[in-house]
Protein 1
Amino acid sequence: RPAFDAERAARDFPILAEALPSGKRLVYLDNAATTQKPTAVLEASDAYYRHANANVHRAIHTLSQRATAQYEGARDKLAAFLNAGSRDEIVFTRGTTDGINLVAQCYARPRLAEGDEILVTELEHHSNIVPWQMIAETTGAKIVVVPLGDDGSVSLDDFKAKLSDRTKIAAFAHISNSLGTVLPIADMIAAAHQAGAVTLIDGAQAVAHARVDVQALDADFYVMSSHKLFGPTGFGALYGKRALLEAMPPYQGGGDMIERVSFSGTTYNEIPYKFEAGTPNIAGAAALGAAVDYVEQFDMAEVFAYEHALLARATEAMEAIDGLRIIGTAPGKAGIISFVMDGVHAHDIGTLLDESGIAIRTGHHCAMPVMERFEVPATARVSFALYNTQADVDALIDGLGSIQRIFG
Ligand code: PMP
């Protein structure tokens, strides 16, 4: 396998070569929001509709067989990618948000009662907070929050201190989307299990930037979004341990999730189909399968090392800019840099960088409690993917330097 080459990888992503209206080169540094799509993924989606479009699991005709093979083939690919024990433990969803809501409604809601606790951390994305608040409201359970350190880290000791025999579920991110913090999830999962709690890991930011092995982690539930892994939007997966999924009631009712329907009573399909009511996003699955193939052509350890080196160089250069403060400096963090600049609102940083063709995210990053913790209304956020290069970092540093000269 040839050594990983980000510039070559960038050529696989047609949008990165598109001329912006300003004539500037696109410098895409908003990968934590969504990643761009390589040609192989675009072609898989197109090819599905051109050559295989039909409904899955139903008809015996050729196109339906092709559609089913692509849909179920993607399940096999994702099961291998996450190292699930079985393909049946992969439930296709609309994404991370949908996966968390599924677990909240189907696992937590029937089991939790007054006095039970749901443990989350202070750095969670709203999608790993609000579904639990909804469960707390209907069951009387309580949300308990693990506080963040000043560097944006989550310490195992603080997590353990919040666990109790009342903790029924512990739900936490693998990597923070707002700060880049990598949580000590293997140890957190073990500690949660010792306390008798079930764990849900929000892997939205992790799947493209860290090795995920759900069996080695002993995760009970692990959720991901296709669009953060170079696949299409509105699609994703929930990994769940077989025994847990089998013991859960269905999420939604409809076609495909049943075994037999009658007005005297209906029986449900086996997992994972029990959780996949209605005609699914077949093209989404086909394209996610292509995205998994795309990343698996690389030695991912080499890709992650590359991203870390890029992060280290960008961090060093940004720290040298007067009045710029990075929020979230936990050791071993992933390729996300949240920052504020004296005298410039985050939105103005975003707008000015956009004039130079540089795409970043500004705002609360769907993590308002993090903004509150660090007492800022918003941050500007740069986030890397495997196709970002030193030239992208140089453009960013140039852009930030001019903003500092104007406002500083
Ligand atoms: N959790 C984290 C950590 C995220 O970064 C995101 C996406 N920003 C989500 C959850 C929600 O993912 P989706 O919008 O694809 O459901």
Note: The longest helix spans residues 62-82.
Protein 2
Amino acid sequence: MANNVFPPAETAYPIDNAHIDSLEAYQTQYAESIQDPEAFWATVAERLTWYQKWDTVRDYDFVNGEIKWFEGGTLNACYNCLDRHVEAGHGDATAIIWEGNSPSEDKTFSYSELLTEVKKFANVLKAEGVEKGDRVCIYLQMVPELAIAMLACARIGAVHSIVFGAFSAESLRDRINDSACKMLITQDTAMRGPRSDIPMKANADAAVAECPSIEKVVVVERTGDTVDFNTSRDIWWHEAMADAEAACEPEVMNAEDPLFILYTSGSTGKPKGCFAYHRWLSRLYVLYISTALRALMKEGNTWVEKYDRSTLKFLGTVGEPIKEPEWLWYYNIVGEKRCPIVDTWWQTETGGILMTPLPAATPLKPGSATFPFFGIEPVILDEAGNEVEGNPATGYLCIKTAWPGIMRTVYGDHERFLDTYFRRFPGYYMTGDGVLRDEDGYYWITGRVDDVLNVSGHRLGTAEVEGAIGQHEAVAEAAVVGYPHDIKGQGIYAYVTLMTGESASDTVETGIKQAVRQHIGPIATPDKIQFTPALPKTRSGKIMRRILRKIAEGDISNLGDTSTLADPTVVEALVEGRR
Ligand code: WTA
């Protein structure tokens, strides 16, 4: 834990522009937001345009996982993102600056231009039979069409479900089928560096072959590579848009109507479809880097220093704990000691940032997400579920009261929603993260306390990776744990037991990696595979991951109590075979 503190005055952040310009101002407003959350959030909601005001600000019950905000109110998220700015005379302001794969490739859209594109695509959706409440899967890289498609869905009340462009055909298929999407929006091939070698349309074709709910596939021409085209099902984006009308009234939506589904990895089984609701606006990923930082730092300073950084105002990080050396490099070299680093902590489930420094107000400590955002009440619980008072404190990071962005359910599986977030500590939202609160009240996220890995800022459930490894015909059983990795934050260490008669070889190892790429995607490829005759299990058959974690981390001096293992000699074999 770093002890350096960087007061806001040490940065050149233009304090005159700040909404919150001192730590005292933050503390006062934070206290108000916690004392009267309904008044606080009602004031925030007043900033949106409502067709009809709400009856009740907040109504929630963390025991039954029932959460409602602004019930009775009606609005449209797309209208609030675009129309109202255009109507207020800001149509010429820039809404999107898109940079492609090379610095020479970019596009900008003003609010008016974006609104026109969104209305046109909303008409394409309608013409192809998409109605309010239907699910639309979006499997695209970061291209402007992604934002246009999201907003168009919101405009007509369709529910969008975005699947990360690097996922495999099977991952895509499972997500489409889980929420029975009617349409898929994808692109021909995807760029990675200078090459267009991710076959997204081909992946989409393979997925859709096993997705009975998909009626139409819209294809964005990104690279111009030749792809298979099924004329009775597939539609080129540019052709459909050429004929589309640019008039489309937004649908009047209830505040609690669904807006989007976002799948994320959990500690067990298949990914969860997190449901977010209409009054929550689209999240914009303004300049965030996390894992990239470690990779960039290794390349030396010249790559950064050869570019003009004078227009940078502040720097963001998200997704994983950042260590002091990287923080200092980011601050000193990239930000030239002028730019505050805004380390934001949040989760797919939270629908927005829950902890963050405020650039002009919060003295920074390298590696800490600092303090809670307004209206967010973090608590630290011990094993028994008691709130740990005072500072310093460590334990499970939980949130005590509901905020508007929190997910509402796991799509189609409310029990799983309760099991994952609310049952371990009744009455609290359990984040799954461990945390330390230091003597000054700063929060330091220490990483996941459940079986979720964080590889290069991507969440993967150990069960998901184990399932993919198990698809290889030679594999009898697998257990996966994370270990510290210089670049990725966490690497994937897989322990694999083979079927009787099979023996470990480079071919089997390559085959296992291939199976994981095919079933999940390259991001989940194990970094290390250790073949082992058996896994350490308790007498009741539960794998003791604690031991596997220690061996993977190289911390074999104290493996703790192994007396409850069905066969304690397994551990020796594991230690000997360590990779
Ligand atoms: C981790 C990505 C430390 C954490 C935003 C959380 C972080 C998980 C931070 C959510 C941060 C996110 N510092 N750890 N600033 N931000 N995390 O849903 O473990 O992909 O639970 O959302 O990332 O991952 P998710």
Note: Confidence is low (pLDDT under 50) at residues 278-285.
